[in-house]
Amino acid sequence: MFNELRPALTMMVIMTALTGAVYPLLVTGVAQTVMQQQANGSLIERDGKPIASELIGQPFSDPKHFWGRPSATSPYPYNASASAGSNQGPLNPALTEAVEGRIKALREADPGNRAAVPVDLVTASASGLDPHISPAAAEYQVARVARLRGLDAAKVRALVAEATEGRQLGFLGEPRVHVLKLNLALDAAR
Amino acid sequence: MTANGYLQIVFFLAVVIALAKPLGVYMARIYEGEPAFLNRVGAPLERLIYRACGVDPAKEMRWTQYALAALWFSLFGLLLGFALQRLQNYLPLNPANMGAVSPDSSFNTAVSFNTNTNWQGYAGESTMSYLTQMLALTVQNFVSAAMGMAVLIALIRGFARQSVQTIGNFWVDLTRGTLYILLPISFLLALVLVSQGVVQTLSPYQTVPLVESVEYDNPRMDAAGQPLKDAKGNAVTDKAMQKEQVIAVGPAASQAAIKHLGTNGGGFFNANSAHPLESATPLTNFLEMLAELLIAVALTFTFGRMVGDRRQGWAILTAMSVVFVSLMAVAVGSEQAGNPALTALGVDQTASETQAGGNMEGKETRFGVVNSALFATVTTATSSGAVNSMHDSFTPLGGVVPMWLIQIGEVIFGGVGSGLYGMLLLAIVAVFVAGLMIGRTPEYLGKKIEAFDIKMAAIAVLVPLFVILIGTAIAVMVEPGKAGVANPGAHAFSEILYAFSSAGGNNGSAFGGLSANTPFYNTALGVCMFFGRYWIIIPVLALAGSLVRKKKVPEGPGTLPTHAPMFILFLIGVVVIIGALTFVPALALGPIVEHLILFGGK
User: Fold this and answer.
1) With contacts defined as CB-CB under 8 Å, which chain B residues touch A3?
2) How distant is the alpha carbon of residue B451 from its chain centre?
3) What is the percent of chain B with per-residue pLDDT over 90, rounded to a whole number?
4) How far apart are alpha carbons B62 and B74 in whole angstroms?
5) If I label B407, which of B57, B206, B242, B444 is the partner at 20 to 30 A Cα–Cα?
6) pLDDT value at residue B90
7) pLDDT at A179
8) In the 3-class helix/strand/coil scheme, how is B219-248 assigned residue by residue?
9) pLDDT for res A14
């Protein structure tokens, strides 16, 4: 009954040291030596100060900016220290109400646009931090942003194209537009 | 679904099979102690570990001793995991100043990681210090996986050997699985994940300014940290302005690698593999899915090789694959079809070259619908339970697939080790039923299956089913059980049923709307996870001990060939019938009702 007690205790100590300290510290050491940028959160810097993470989205509600995915984090959207999805089920009236509200906001910001709204623009992302929207969701907003900024739609479309990432290796994942980079480029173009 | 969607699925499955075969052969060599590259390099370290533990690697164990070793080892893991969470506020590597985790949550999480479930009632980035993530959680990710594999190898020895008493040495199997299989692959995978943007750092959370400040309603807290409510029961809030973003980081890549490879599934961050810093790109998503399936699939080859009949491994793999592909097709199809309630509002859900379309609530743009539904199938077919999309927001049929895959016992690939020993139990049940039909003594792999063996198999198959259904029944009857649901109507029942399925089946994914970080759920689910793990492991080892003593019966004209298509179909039948008979009534009250309401009008 108790023969295995000592090996059990010693083995747990050894495994803890090996897989809980040596292994993660070794990964950290290599990562911090050869891939510091990625290992620390892919921060975008301007004048030596971090201004955003390339992988973490930010909230946008100004009609002059492109809007990103709705975010369900609390207490405010795109809270990067409390990632979360809405977890609303497909039949939940709160989901349909929220989607209706988002469509209304989009239509109020752009009264002439009667096109069907791309689904990713009115549904909350899984992490609440999604930095991307689909190319269709960007195209839906091009006319609005161009008009409010007094820019040529072609110019805005060119900026969208620059912020668009294709499928990785040509076939993995989905094509997407980086909302934050696009908005930073728009603000710089002014 | 677009042509590219099909391409991604086919490519994924092809890569899994291509890599699994060599890995399966390699693992057989490692467990049999045959020379391979890594065990030659690691031999001095391996010997040192045995010496420190006072273990003689050449001395084998009977099943009782093997089981006791496993249970003592687990007990220390549990205590260590619990203690680290309770004491983390006094310990180093806690830059975000996390307080001690509550006793009930610490219990739940300690059991959860110890049993390879990785159910999470807490949110990682707002609960756990870096030290707890590393020393408590990452460690359990490794050893619970290594233990699952060890128990499987012991069962395979039960079939492979004859007329002996011992089934191997637990300490040797545990050490070899960790040193030569889990650690090296995790190390490589972690570095690739970092290269794509998954964070790996011990520095504190990063702060960046927001381009647009956000005005929001901040809930006012009382002295105890609970949200205040007014006379009508609405939360009291203050207007607040957020001008910066605090980005949670940490040693995530090293944990994410083993979380997938060991089919653990516990996220470093709350959003798990949907979080851009835990799965940054479509490539990390692909590799994480690959890691989840890789060892589970490879073990079918290890099995075939160790029992000396590769066709037996292929037969099991074929049965698993047929169920997997069928259910994946349902999940992908249902999610791609989207939510009819949104179409009515003027939302465009069609798939095209410029959008993934479909049901995008709770999904990330970079993964789209195909990779989210595929991930949901992989993560619940295996016992991983990591998520890259929120299963709670899936369409009813899209959500049935993960739930039912867990309920049929995590045997479609399943957890590393645990999936295949679960499937072998069902194979024993299948030969037993077939034996009854044709009136012969059942045999599997040359071993006569007798009363004791079938009793052990029946216990191990039935305990999780019992735990899931009884747990759900209790939770829907008591107030603290009903208080946690987030969605109204039938979906509330689905949330509870999913939670107990996930705990009893040791999966760990959730319909995450359920507020499970309460004393009731932490305790109830903790107990379910415990039974769902150890009340399979003990009967499986007892079965191994019984089988290993038996002589192999030579194949005769009356032997049921267990590699033939007929048996494969029969095995699938047993899996599906047990799962369907047990759970269809419960599913009818949840997701099936929802499906009828959503598509049949109200």
Assistant:
1) 65, 68
2) 31
3) 92
4) 19
5) B444
6) 97
7) 98
8) ECECCCCCECECCCCCECEEEEEEEEEEEC
9) 97
Residues of A in contact with B490 (CB under 8 A): 91
Confidence of residue B403 (pLDDT cuts 50, 70, 90): very high
pLDDT tens digits, one per residue of B340-361: 999 999 999 999 999 999 999 9
Instruction: Report the mean per-residue pLDDT for chain B.
Output: 95
Q: Where are the beta strands (DSSP E) in B370-507?
A: 443-444, 447-448
Q: What is the pLDDT of residue B601?
A: 65
Tokens 């994914």 correspond to B509
d(CA B499, CA B592) in angstroms, rounded, equals 17
Partner residue facing B125 (CB), from A39, A83, A103: A83
B104–chain A Cβ distance below 8 A for any pair: no
A134 touches chain B (CB under 8 A): yes
Asked if A82's CB is within 8 angstroms of B125's CB, the reply is yes
> Over pLDDT 70: what percentage of chain A?
99
From B190, B356, B362, residue closest to A126, measured CB to CB? B362
Query: Does A136 lie at the interface with B, CB-CB under 8 angstroms?
Result: yes
Residues recorded for chain A: 190
User: Which residues 63-92 of chain A have a CB within 8 Å of chain B?
Assistant: 65, 69, 75-92
Q: How confident is the model at residue B431, as a pLDDT?
A: 95
Contacts of B283 in chain A (CB under 8 A): 168-169, 172-173
Cβ contact (<8 Å) for B513 and A88?
yes
Closest-CA residue of A relative to B364 is A125
What is the residue extent of each domain of chain B? Answer: 20-203+250-303, 206-247
Please give the pLDDT value at position B555: 86
The pLDDT of residue B224 is above 90: no
Q: Which of B364, B393, B597 faces A88 most closely, judged by CB atoms?
A: B393
In B415-515, beta strands by DSSP E: 443-444, 447-448
